[in-house]
Amino acid sequence: MGTGLDGSTTTTGTGDGLAWRRRADGGERPATRTENARYQRLADADRGTGGESLSDFLGYFSIGLGLAESLMPGVMARVIGIDHEDETNRNTLRLMGLREITNGLAVLGKQQPEKAMWSRVAGDALDLALLGKALTNPKNSRGRTLFATANVLAVSALDVMAARQLSKQPKTEANAGADAGIIHTKRSITVGKPVAEVYAYWRDFANLPRFMRHLESVTVLDDRRSHWVAKAPAGQRVEWDAELTEDRPNELIAWRSIEGSGIWNAGTVRFQPAPGGRGTEVRVDLSYDPPLGKLGSKVAMLWREEPGQQVQDDLRHFKQVMEIGEILVSDATKQRGPHPAAPDDKPVEL
Length: 350
Prior knowledge:
By secondary structure, the protein is of the alpha+beta class. It has ten helices and eleven strands.
């Protein structure tokens, strides 16, 4: 017995291929292996991302360390126990800092950064060799050098761990196109409305700006093509034309930007009945080519501008529009960061 994501409890039978889910309302419904297999296939399609969180952390760490070595070589020399610093030592540390920054940018700038991570491992070996040389000099502080060596060994272990995990990634839908810098994200939500109603609302593209906060307008050009206008940083706008590649009523909408558009994107929206008669599952599968690749996506994440976060926010807004007819916002939504608790009369901009 366990607890489901929806707060329900589950009990799995043995031998008969049938599991029972006890809902919050006290009712029960059988969950067959066929039903569970569908969710397993969805999970399998998203595999291939093991090690990315660790590699992202190490990428940021590498950039921070590199900046310190490049901008404060004298301080860093003393930290690692070199008490007789000279211009040669300072230049060596500056070069090491430049290598760290380059490695960090390479790790963060690639969808599949296993090669960049192995490059970090090679850099760690060089750092250890230089620290070993420093240990042989009696003029240095042996204690600080040994402490620095222990820290490099710890980071090296993390680098090897991340590199090995990334190297084992299978060729799945989750990382297809990653070598070309394509961002791929999947998000889903359950909407408490019938499939036909949910599909019809989304299929009318003029409704999309109501819940997609970066979208200014969608103009339908004909039965297949539409023109999109979206907000961009620094008060700019971006525009592109898109075309439907597949439209199955009450089931699926697929699109892609037309060749020559300033922003390449493609994806699908699937609609299917939610288990237990709870409404409609809406699943968005988006591929997107950001201007600065994965690195640009990581920077955008700090301002909740990363495509995956945008899609999840838009789906929450869509759920609210469908279920209650409007988007609910809080004071924190209107004003990011610290601010007075008293509400203001400023208009809300999603």
